[in-house]
Specification:
Helices cover 31% and strands 30% of the residues. With 367 residues, it is an alpha/beta fold. A hairpin with a 2-residue loop joins strand 2 and strand 3.
Length: 367
């Protein structure tokens, strides 16, 4: 993928979970910045690839590789967890720290010096990421999707595949505004600072944007998203989904507001204005789904209870059988005692008969 000129980066794509912390853009995945862009913030991500003639206004921190194309300038330090590739005439005002190998071009300026734990090669490095994406595009063009998947997995190096931060050519990103001439997409659970300016804007769910949204075409504000500013489009449609909050004015060609959305400012629409509420059929469908889920849970609980009861019954039967055996043994053990009792009674009877005979003999003697 070429980062100079027109290329596959055709929109500003902010992945889910992106945050702006103090003066840095923090991303869990990779960061790709198109040529001739200006990024006033620092950049922190896994792999960082900066296009030609890009100016970065703060530090760059890459957990993996870092690639800076020709004529780039970084007003800060560059910290790289693995390998670094610097094209010719790159300028770094701070210090370059590389844990792996360093591939560096001609006329590179590093004002505070550099340190690399691996090999250091001074030449004009070929941006390998460009080569990889060219190969991927050719494989997809000829229909070799299996080979493209294998190459993509090899590039991922077994790590979790995460959506990258894509910044198109000639973009301007700062703490005040994010300006691009392409469409912009924001994922879910993001926290951004600055006004967002793009051809069209789609903001996902559970985001918080400290700024306004302005586009030439459609603007969509996802559910449970908070916009600390105005939402404006020149001629498109503004859609505010359920649970979203706009702490400002909304101006659009057409306006669509879902039930449960909150807009604290004024509403202006040159065309249609719609308020969409959840219908009874949708509510019934939701209730049916909930009832089905509850029935499944009850079935699972009943099965578990039946299994537990069967286990308990088996245990009780075993205990009763064991008690029966013990009872039989007890009766058999008591038999000798009963025999002893019978012997004692018989002995007592014989003794009584003998005593009576003696008494009779004594009486006869007296007479």
């Amino acid at each position: 993928m070429s980062l100079r000129g027109d290329g596959p980066i055709e929109e500003l794509s902010i992945p889910s979970g992106t945050t702006v912390e103090e003066h840095d853009v923090v991303v869990d995945g990779d960061v790709l910045v198109g040529g001739q862009s200006t990024v006033e913030l620092g950049v922190r991500g896994r792999n960082v690839a900066i296009g030609e003639r890009v100016r970065v206004g703060d530090d760059i921190e890459a957990e993996g590789d870092c690639r800076l194309d020709t004529w780039c300038s970084v007003d800060g330090n560059v910290l790289v967890g693995e390998d670094a590739y610097l094209g010719e005439r790159v300028t770094v005002t701070g210090r370059l720290m590389v844990s792996g190998d360093l591939d560096i071009g001609d006329d590179v300026t590093i004002e505070e010096g550099f340190e690399a734990n691996g090999w250091i090669v001074i030449r004009n490095p070929v941006p390998t990421i460009v080569f990889y994406f060219i190969v991927l595009s050719q494989l997809l063009r000829v229909g070799e999707t299996d080979a493209a998947d294998e190459l993509a997995e090899a590039l991922a190096d077994g790590d979790d595949v995460r959506d990258p931060l894509l910044v198109p050519r000639s973009a301007e990103i700062s703490d005040d505004a994010w300006r691009v001439s392409t469409p912009a997409t924001v994922g879910d659970d993001c926290r951004l600072h600055g006004n967002l300016r793009a051809a069209s804007i789609r903001v996902g769910e559970r985001n918080e944007v400290f700024g306004s949204l302005r586009a030439r075409e459609d603007v969509t504000v996802g559910a449970d998203t908070i916009i600390h500013g105005d939402v404006t489009t020149r001629g498109g449609t503004v859609t505010v989904e359920s649970g979203a909050r706009v702490l400002g004015d909304v101006s659009a060609g057409d306006l669509v507001v879902y039930d449960g959305a909150e807009i604290q400012g004024t509403l202006r629409a040159r065309g249609e204005m719609k308020l969409i509420q959840e219908t009874e059929a949708e509510e019934e469908a939701d209730e049916t789904e909930e009832e089905a889920e509850e029935a499944d849970e009850r079935d699972v609980d009943a099965e578990e209870t039946a299994a537990e009861q069967s286990d308990e019954l088996d245990g009780d039967e075993a205990d009763e059988a064991a008690d029966g055996d013990e009872g039989g043994d007890g009766e058999r053990a008591d038999d000798p005692e009963s025999g002893d009792d019978a012997t004692e009674s018989e002995t007592a009877a014989v003794t009584a008969d003998a005593g009576a005979a003696v008494d009779a003999a004594e009486s006869e003697d007296e007479f």
